[in-house]
Every structure is written in C-alpha cells, then in structure tokens.
Amino acid sequence: MFAALAGIGLLALAGCSNPEKTARYLIDPPVTAGQVPNRLGTAELKDVSLPEYASGQEVAFQTEDGAVRSNPDNLWADNPQRGFTLALARAISDASGATVIGEPWPLGEPPQRTLEVRVERALTQANNVYRLSGRYFVSDSKGGGTNHARSFDISVPVGSETPGATSVAVSQAIAQLAVQIATLSGPGRTIATQTPADPFGLDPLF
C-alpha cells in the first residue's frame, strides 16, 4: 500500500515538474518601419525600472476584480528588466541610427547621453489593453547640452487573453516607446534645463 502511494506521489511530482508544460515568452520588438533623425548620438541606457509585478519571472495580467495575477506555467524567457532594457536599446538604435547600449557602457569613448526610463505601469489590463506608462530622462553626459524629462503613456490592444498575445503587445509598446525617446517626443511636458558647459567637449546634436 505504501509503495503504491509512493508511486502515485512520484508520478504527480513528475507531472508538476514537466518542463514542457512551462511556456516561456520573449520580449522582441518588431523591426521599426522607417527612420527618424538621430538626436541622441551615443547613449547609455540605464537598467529600466519596472514595477515589482512586471519584474517577476511570471507573465502578469489584471482581472476584472482589479487584482494583478500570474501563472507559474507562463514565464518570461529572460529576466524582464534585462530583456526590456536590451530590447529598448536595440529598438531606439534601429529607429534612429543612434548608438544606444544598455549599461554598463562597453566602449572606450564615453557616451554623449545617458538615458533613464522609469516605468510606472506595464500590464495587460482587464479591458484587454496593454498599458505602458511612466517617464524617461535624457541627460547630457558632458555638460553644455539640454536635459529632457518626458512622460509616456502607450496603449496597445491585446488580441486575445493569452500570455503570447501579451508578449506581442509588450514588444509593440517598446517599439513605440523607442520612437518617442529617439525623437524626444510623447505626451506630457518637456522640462529642459541647461547644464554647465564642458570647455573640453563640443556637442552639436542639440
């Protein structure tokens, strides 16, 4: 009897740990159609700040009762912060021709700009719309340029109530955010401040 129960327990455990039941989804923005002017030059993108529910390994979603839920069978294929940061850096570069690289900066020549993105909401809502909102900051690394602080609020319809559809919506939202950052645009108000000029460096981009 004990042996039979033990066998059943092992089978149940094997079923729960079956890796084929775990789906992993990529954050991979589509290729941007068309090019926008290069207003950034070279820029280091700091690790994107995500809400706690969006930085976890499970794909989160909101239900009609307002709760944010997730399922351990549906995971992001990479660390969400790393995946979001790398995808955004690549998308900005593809859209504008700028050289945007996630930190740490790997090149010998320092970047001209520093980018910081603070996400306040990144979630498929109960109305089947993925919403990505927050603020981004572009600062001049050498001084003498213009620093920008802008807000963004992007909504992308989710085709179906599945993690795969959420993954597609996330990718599309990142592509839209990349164009906004590349063009220093988006909803909200720009706050521009002048930093002291660096007598040893010139920057014609702004």
Spans of at least 5 consecutive residues whose pLDDT stays below 50 are 1-15, 202-206
- H-E string: HEEHEEEHEEEEHE
What is the mean predicted local confidence, pLDDT? Answer: 85
Provide the CATH top-level class: Alpha Beta
Overall shape: globular
Second-tier CATH architecture:
3-Layer(aba) Sandwich
Question: CATH homologous superfamily, by name?
Answer: ABC-type transport auxiliary lipoprotein component
What is the helix content? 25-40%
Lateral strand order in the biggest sheet? 6-2-7-8-9-10
C-alpha-based Rg, rounded = 21 Å
The end-to-end span amounts to 79 Å
Strand content: 25-35%
- Helical region count? 4
Structural domain tally: 1
Strand segment tally: 10
In words, what does this structure look like?
Residues 25-182 form the ABC-type transport auxiliary lipoprotein component domain. It holds the Pfam family ABC_trans_aux. This is Membrane integrity-associated transporter subunit PqiC. InterPro entries: ABC_trans_aux (IPR005586). With 206 residues, this protein is α/β, with parallel strands linked by helices. It has one domain (2-194): Rossmann fold (3-Layer(aba) Sandwich). It contains 4 helices and 10 strands. It has helices at residues 2-16, 52-55, 80-96, 163-182, and strands at 23-25, 42-45, 61-62, 68-69, 74-76, 99-102, 113-124, 129-140, 146-157, 193-194. The strands form 3 sheets. The chain has a 6-stranded mixed sheet. Helix 3 crosses helix 4 (163-182). It starts with a helix and ends in a 12-residue tail after the last strand. Mean pLDDT is 85; it is low at 1-15 and 202-206.
